[in-house]
## 1
Amino acid sequence: MNREFDFKMDCKPDFGVVTVNLEGDQTIKVEASAMAAMDTNVEMKTKFKGGFKRFLTGESLFINEFTARAGPGEILIAPGSPGDIEHLHLDGDTIYLQNSAYVASGLDVQINMKWQGFMKGFFSNEGLFLIQCTGHGDLFFNTFGAMVCIDVDGEYVVDNGHIVAFTEGLDYKISTVGGYKSLFFSGEGLICRFEGQGKVWIQTRQLGAFASWVYPYRPVQSNG
């Protein structure tokens, strides 16, 4: 497996974390608030990423850069959501992430916002923008729940709430499973119909369904 960094992943697939061993003067980009621990010789710089576009997604506006100074250093990266972490080494290819999936990457991986269009954005439950990652180097992304990678050659259907990432070369359309009656009464939501050749990463849980499951057990204040 190609890799830019010396790293190990632990606690998969429930509460995945990544430990990266940086060489001297080596730098890794990390999503804001994902650093859990690091050596004292690792320095952090905060950089503004995404501008107003990323503000619209509800995600943080900053990506932190961590650099090992005066020798090697270790950094422990832990995303906010309970779930799995996946590693992918980009070699000039492109992958699209849902707007909360980015965790970390090398300096030569470019992070941009991709406009979905009003129809796809408003009905996909993932906002108006996707995160486009392209270039050369390691990329780490995470899920809510465990993660499954599916090879697509032709057409494939995924529930919107379960999509984590997909590769360039796959197009998608937002639709319902069986018409609007099914949308409101079947318990199934909107879906993405992928078409083309590539990979799709899905998460085994979705936040909306989990919130509905937890809701009956919430503490309720008595009015008496």
Note: Residues 51-55, 118-126, 180-188 have pLDDT under 50 and may be disordered.
## 2
Amino acid sequence: MKFILLLLPLLLPTPLLAHTGSHAYGFTSGFTHPVFGLDHLLAMLSVGILSAQMGGRALWSVPLFFVGFMLVGGILGMLGVPFFSVEIAIAVSVLVLGLCIASSQKFPILLTMAGVAFFALFHGHAHGVEMPEAVNPTLYALGFILGTTLIHLLGVALGWWATRPHRPAFFLRWAGVAIALVGAYFLTQSTLGRKEEAAFPVSSFTR
């Protein structure tokens, strides 16, 4: 049943599955945006779950790295520093994190932090571009950071629960597979969107 619930997002319309460039208005919008942005939600949960799978220092350092570099990416987005293929990178982050969870491997912590930091730059940039249009960008940023941190903690709690003795080992594997499938779907939609934009540069397609 849990596996089926994780696959339900595949049935949602594409605009609900990625950043749409919608305006942000303050703390509440920033706090709730990670929840309603499914790509960001899955990435945050995955980072928390993966850190719990690895255990030890990774339990706090991996999520902390993500939040820190997400801030850097957000600042770069606010300053107008261009990033290329942001939506594709975000989709790849969901796909890769899902595969890492499904593999149940304990990756080198430095490699994990570097990968998480790289993806966090793109997640932050996508939202940083939106912040200057907000009524209160500072409150939006604070809300977004708090919302992201809480999702990380939820992922850590899920990962901790699933890795306890006598818990079914297949739970996290199937959860990781489901997340990776959603990431693959995001990637397909992002790639198709870029092809459509290239084919119709003056059309009504927006990102």
Note: The radius of gyration is 17 Å.
## 3
Amino acid sequence: MSATSPQQLAVRVAAVFAFSLALLKGVAFLQTGSVALLASLVDSLLDGLASVVNLIAIRYAMVPADDGHRFGHGKAEPLAALAQTAFIAGSGVFVLLEAARRYTLDEPVTTQPALGIGVMLIAIVGTAALVLYQRRVARKTGSLVVEADSLHYLSDMLSNVAVLAALILASQPALWWVDPLAAICVAIYVLHSAYAVGQRALGQLMDHELPGELREDILKAAQQEPGVLGVHDLKTRAAGPYRFVQLHLELDAAQTLEAAHSISDRVAVRVRQACPQAQVIIHQDPVRSEP
């Protein structure tokens, strides 16, 4: 992948946006003291760090296979994601503790709530534009990493809306409790995201099978090829942007090796249509007809 590829450009734009937003939120937090805004600030910092790690992981994962890594470097992506999970979970716990402390101190948001409201409006509009851009890149390139990133920022936009509502309501002295409550909600969302990311990363690192629906599509594609008498022992896994498919084809033992090889090649094409960019390994099992 070139250094100017749409995938990498989308990740770089996301990183710059996240760090710029974190800076604005930091200034607003110092002025407002909003713990919900602090939670959103931590989330934006993590978004920026995640995008930087994603950029590094994408570049390394796309390095072609070599003598030491015959299956490529695709697992760099889930390894990076697993490392991020620890930081994301830690930030969620930090925000929960800070929100609990705010409840015990009974501290309202007292200074310049308008600044925080303005920053969150910028965050919502900017994140919406980023999501639209990332989705366009994902559709154009088929990049699963960019598609997943766009879903993550879409969730962030919803949490920004919650923080905006908290800032508006918490500016009223009687509703001071809304601010730490919103922080708790954002923290729970962050912890849930950490769990989801960690689960997917571990699945790839442990060579978990591809989704059942995709496996069914692969089997159907292989069985549709004329000359295929049966398909069994399907094995699948993922490693970052790569998919690996292994299966056994039952073929007529009376035909020539060349004919069997041609059928296998056509099956591989069908499988890659059902599972794009898959690396397909096919074992041919001869089947003799009953006398």
Note: The CA atoms of residues 97 and 184 lie 9 Å apart.
